Structures are given as C-alpha cells and as structure tokens.
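Next up, sample data.

:::
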Amino acid sequence: MSRIVALEPAPGSPTSLLRTFVGLHLRDLGGWIRVAGLLELLATAGVPTSSTRSAVSRLKDRGLLLSEKRDSLAGYRVDPAAATDLERGDRRIFSYRGQRDDEPWCLVSYSLPEVERSKRVQLRRALMGLGFGAVSDGLWIAPGHLRAEAEDAVDRLAAREHATIFITQTPRTAGPFARSAAAWWDLDRLALRHTVFLDRYEHHAIEASASDDRESFILWLRCVDDWKTIPYVDPGLPANALPADWPGMRSVDLFAELRARFSAPAHDYVAKVAAAD
C-alpha cells in the first residue's frame, strides 16, 4: 500500500478509504474491478456512491487509478506507475520493524543553498514522513533500518550532492538517551496515536470474531485505514529511547492479531462481490 503523507486525506475520509481498498484488495483482484463492484463495496463500508466517485477522480489525478473497460464493462485498474509506492507501503505497514538497543542508527545531514529552499523544505517533509526525528536544523535521526528509505528520498529529490547519510551506533548524549529522544520526536503524540488505535479496536480482539465475511470486510478496511499512518510517524524506536509505559508494541501486536483474524474473510467477501454479474 502506498503511504499517506501529511497533505493527504485523514483516515476515515472517502478518499482515504478508497486508497486503503486499492492497497488491500485491488491488486489481489488482478488489478481491475468493475465500477458497480467498487461502488457496492465502498457503500458497504459506509461511503456514499457520490463520495466514492469523487474519491476515484482524486486518485486518478494522483496517479493511482486508471479507467479501463473490459468486455464492455466500465471499471478501474491500478496505474502501473503506482506499483513501487504500493509495494513500499506494504513493507512499512505490514512489516513493522522495531529497533533493538544495540542496533545502529541512521543520520541524515544536509545543507542546501537558499536558491534550493523549496527542495530543502521537501526533504525535511520527506524525512518527517519516514519517521525521522530532528536533532537540529539539517540533522535528522532514525533507526538504521530506514537507511534505504532515506537514500531513496534524497535521490528522488536530487539532493545527493548536498546530503550525507551516516550509519552509527547510539549517539552519546549529555544525559540519558531517552531524554534526547523525547526532544527529537514528539513521543506524547506518538503514544496517543497508539492509544487511540488500542481503544478503538482492542475489544474486537477480546470479543468473538466478526459475524460474517461482510462484517470482516468492513472492520478490516477501517482498521487498516486507521493504522496505515502509524508506522510512518513511529519509526520503531528501541526500548532505551522510550518511556517504560510505551503502548506501541501493544498496538503492533493488536494489529497483527486483527490481520490474522479478519483479512482472509474480508478478501473472500471482496472476491465474491467483484465476481458477481
């Protein structure tokens, strides 16, 4: 699935739910779905037809969907140009990676001239969107497993000659490392994101499974739509950078449990609706 950046719709909006649907299900359908099937599925999830059509237009403008007829049936398919972003999003969303205390860190240092101020802003936003913390102006830090994504962000902005990427052991800070981490990342905000997710979905793990495939589809779509931005603001900090009562791993485990329980019946429901005449 493609990641959601700061300027894109918030979870729960028609455009966000449609994008989540594309990432979760459309590729499994062979990359194409008839218009009527898509409208029915999104309506099942509570999105009015008019809102789905507007959301489709937005995602076509953003290079995620294309209109395509098959056997005289109007439909939509995934834009091949979006494949790389969707796969990158899959890895981040469904393969949460937490760092151990003894693993290396990735630092990105850059200094762009004033004539490239807009590129400097874009690079800062890109690093924030990957979960990097700001040590100071032009110096950012994240767990070492995000190195490839940092390199990709720098390369896509053609900023390589102005940026240096370091892989290093835990920085030596004046006080406890956790105190510095709290200054580099907004840990209160991150914790709140996890807590909201736990409050919203923990009872589904405690109670019986959804009653049928339709209910599983609705729950799983909304669950992923709420979860998908969390791995981008929480880069998987190690225990020595976090408060003792950190809720992050509880929500990571909860998401994995919900995936194991609801993703397969949700897929079955989508396949059935998509195959209907």
Notes: The chain has eleven helices and seven strands. Residues 14-90 form a domain with the Arc Repressor Mutant, subunit A fold (CATH 1.10.10.10).
